Structures are given as C-alpha cells and as structure tokens.
Amino acid sequence: MMLKSLTMTLLLAGMSCPARAERELWQDFTKPPHDYWTKPVTDRFSLLKDDLASGKIPLDRSSEKAFLMSLLAVLKVPASSQLLVFSATSLQLSLISTRNPRALFFTDDLYVGWMPGGKVEIVSIDPALGGIYYIFEIPRREGAALQVERSNRCMNCHGAADSGWVPGLVISSVIPGPNSGSLISYRQEVLGHAVPLGERMGGWLVTGAGTWKKHRGNVTGELYAGKLTTTPVEFGETFDLNRYPAATSDPLAHLLHEHQAGFITTALEAGYRARAALHEGGGTIPPGREAELDAAAEALVRYVLFTDETALPPGGVAGDPTFREDFAATRQADPAGRSLRDLELKTHLLKYRCSYMIYSPAFTGLVPEMKTRVFQRLATALRPDQRDELSRSLPGAEKQAIRGILTATLPGWDK
Prior knowledge:
Helix content: 25-40%
Largest sheet: 7 strands, antiparallel
Strand content: 5-15%
Radius of gyration: 21 Å
Structural class: alpha+beta
C-alpha cells in the first residue's frame, strides 16, 4: 500500500482531499490536540533513556561496535536485522558512502541507525504520537556521560510529505553518484508492501537476494549527457565488514522493514485524523467527519490484510536463518500453534495475511473511536463465507485461521 492510498479512498468516496504537498489541519502535530513536542511520551526508548544516560543500565564502552551491540541487546533489537545503506540520505550524510555505509537495525517499535565514526540515531514509536527521534554520540572514554538529545532536525524529513506529514518512517530509494549524492530518486512519498520491487532499495546493499535481481540496490551511477551508467557495488569489498555487527543486509529484512514503515504511517494517519476529529467535536466525532474516519479505517484494514501486496520475485525469498529465528522469537500463537509472524516467502510475506504489526504500539495506541471502526471493518472482511474487496486474495480457510489467531492473541478483538 502506498502513502497516497487514503487520499485515493477519500477521492473515490466523493470527498475533497488536497494533495500531499499541502498540510491539512489534522496534520499539524505541533499544535492541539497532538502537541507533539509537549505531550508526555511513553515509547520504549524514552522510558529507558534516563537509565541509559546515568549508567544505571550499563553499556560496553570498549569500542564503537561493542557499545552498539550492547545497546541493541538492551533494546531487544536483533543485530541480524541489519540493513546497510550507502546513499547520503541521513542527518549524518557527510559520513555515509560505499566505504562507510550506514547500518539500520529494527524491531516492531524501535529503529536504530549508526555508521562507524558517527552518532547513534533512534526512532522509537510512541503509541499516540508516532516516531520519537533521538541522536547521541557514543562516549569515547569510560565514565563520560551519555548525552541523549531529542532531535528536531529529523522532522525535516520524518514530519513532511515523505512520511505523510505525520511523525513516521521514511525509506529512500535512489541511485547514488560517485560521492553518494542522489542522481535519480524512485518511489517518492510512497511506502509499504505495494511499492513495486523494481523501485526498491536504491542506495542500499542487499545480500542473499537469490532470484530477486530486479531491484535498485548494490549499484552507484554516473549521469552523462542524460544517460545513466551504473557500476556494481560488491558487498564487503569497499568497506571493512568486521566493523559491523552482522555480515548481512538481508532481503527479508528489507521486505519486513518496508511493510512496517507503511503500516506505521497508515496507522498514524488514522489515529491523527481521529484525534483531530474528537478535538473538533469536544470529545465526540462531528457528523461531518464520520465518512473521513471510516475511510481511514478502511485504508488501515486494507493495509493490515495485505490487499495490495506486491508479489515476491519468482522463486521467493529465503531470508537469513538467524534473522528468521530472531523474527519468530516474539511470535504469539493460538491454541493450534498458528501465529501472524509465520512466514510464507514463496509468493508473499506471511502465511496468514494479517499484519503482526497489529500488536505494535502504532496500532494499540489508536484512540478507541478509530480502533472500533478498524475492528468492525476487519471482522467484515474476514467473514469466511463472504467475498470482500479488502480480502479478495484470502481463501476462506485463511480468513478462518486469521480470526482464530486474533481471538486468541489480540486484546479487544472479540468478533
């Protein structure tokens, strides 16, 4: 699904919806009712940062890599999720190149960025507000204080058109030039599992892709007289792989990262719209906003059920075994042993096509007025004996399995 899906849903419903470049009132997260900069945050990193800064939670300071590894362990972010990007698409762009790629590590609610010689970047998902962004230096000597700073510069990208004007995630796909600057950009202002595979991963390193050849990763380019010439970047040949926690930038991690980014932004949009409507109505939804919120719920359910998922490449994707094991470590199973984290990987990502991100703060933090709408629309789409446009690709048995998993594992679901 793309970031523009809700815009299209609203247009199809006959409603007026401005272009993404124009910020709507509900999108101004700095003002009431959102109050992004002043409202107390409850995301996982924010709740830990004071103990990390004070040393109450100790971190290994013997080297950059050791510090990073100990931080990932404390945050329960698997090192096997490592993705490497060499395009200059970060606050620390001057440090990023094919000789010094930036590493990204993630779990459902927390993202860690770092490159050798650089600062640590954190995106931690608050249930109500979305991404909370931090940046800090790795202390170079024992006893030095850890200065954790909430970053406002990150909002130049993470609170603008590329994230749908909500504090979400941004994924760039570009062809970098010789100095890592972008020559060509793909899939601008779109996120999620509907993005064509051939437009993904420009400026990123990809390992173990197997039959997946048609992506934009692993190349730099040169433009001359309007013609682009690309040069392969061989993994580990231009940089010291030993400086990084893992020896992979796995295609499965890329696919899941893409799915999660789209989910978070779609869920945040639904939540921000609902909160703004409640504020406007003094605690109730104004009649004139009902259709808008129904469309937002529809867009979120559409994403949850992978309605527009791009098919995997011929032969599927294997995925790094360590990352697959780490990804499954938090699976929640029903009495039949089924889980939304069970992978399929032949033609699509998941065996049961309902997003495991439904357990994450991006979903659990939805205001009740929106969550109720989502549950009602999801229940309709998952009726085994009924054809529904949102679940058109799901056989009745798969719908039944998803309902069983949700009933056993998702608080509030009683359909």
